[in-house]
Write a structure and sequence with these properties.
2 domains, two-stranded antiparallel ribbon, alpha/beta, about 280 residues, Arc Repressor Mutant, subunit A, about 50% helix, four-stranded mixed beta sheet, 13 helices
């Protein structure tokens, strides 16, 4: 069972409102750039879209992205997305070696444990999931944590529907609200620190998700490339379904999968957010 609402202090609420406003402004600007990329809008135009002065917009955006608006937004266009794509041979080598970047193993940052077939079939019976809503750089997210690790991390548009989705994914589990207890693992997940993962998926889904964990930060792959390296070269559509079934936003980087043309394609938490995450990774 889960409680109806997450209680936060007045100070935390104000902080959440400020940070959410920041991301909402950024998201609005990215959507505008996508629609007007041929016009190459200048800083003044983008500041108006954000509802800020050029000075304050530049400062806010740079603080959020870690780079200037100009450096960040050049990665938003489809042409820039093409540059993020890895070649098949490079991806295959990365997967074979377990590499997520030059000289670094992604496996050092995460440990992955999937449910056993029996646990999967039972719908998580006997599993206790502590949950909480948390503000992140890319919007409000719902986190779920079991004793084995992070099992759910999804961006939220409606708290009620987000909790329903968690319950649907783990129908037999016991859900307990625990904002304070889940906060540290969310901070680690977005801070690049070691995060244990507790995944509920089919063997094929787990294989696809593990492949995505080895795609280097700031790079991207196609559905066909992933299909090839998981041993199912003709299963691009099945790979797409597995990618879309991922419930660990950002941690399992389904946002790094693009169409073969370099187009961004879909994203369960919104294509604009996908652009923001990819551009943030690439710009840095």
């Amino acid at each position: 069972m889960f409680d109806s609402k997450n209680r936060v202090s007045g100070e935390a609420c104000r902080d959440y409102t400020e940070r959410m406003t920041t991301y909402q402004r950024v998201e609005k600007v990215i959507a505008y750039v996508d629609a007007h990329r041929e016009d190459q809008p200048d800083l003044g135009t983008l500041a108006k879209v954000a509802g800020l002065s050029p000075f304050h917009f530049h400062r806010l955006f740079s603080r959020w992205a870690g780079v200037t608006p100009k450096a960040f937004l050049k990665f938003v266009t489809s042409e820039s997305a093409k540059d993020l794509l890895l070649k098949n041979d490079v991806l295959g080598a990365s997967l074979a070696a377990g590499l997520s970047g030059p000289g670094r193993l992604h496996d050092l940052l995460v440990t992955v444990e999937g449910l056993s077939p029996g646990e999967y079939k039972s719908g998580g019976a006997g599993v206790v999931i502590r949950w909480g809503f948390h503000e992140t750089s890319f919007g409000l997210a719902l986190a779920g944590v079991t004793p084995r690790g992070l099992c759910h991390l999804a961006f939220v548009s409606s708290r009620e529907s987000a909790l329903r989705e968690l319950k649907k994914k783990w129908p037999k589990a016991v859900l307990r609200e625990d904002h304070a207890g889940t906060a540290p693992i969310v901070a680690k997940a977005f801070g690049g620190k070691k995060v244990p993962l507790h995944l509920r998926g089919t063997p094929f889904q787990l294989k696809v998700w593990e492949a995505l964990l080895r795609v280097p930060t700031g790079r991207a792959v196609t559905y066909a490339q992933v299909a090839k390296v998981v041993g199912k070269p003709k299963a691009s559509r099945a790979v797409g379904t597995a990618v879309g079934s991922n419930t660990l936003a950002c941690v399992i980087p389904c946002h790094r999968v693009l169409r073969g043309t370099g187009a961004f394609g879909g994203y369960r938490w919104g294509v604009t957010r996908k652009r923001a995450i990819l551009a943030s990774e690439a710009a840095r």
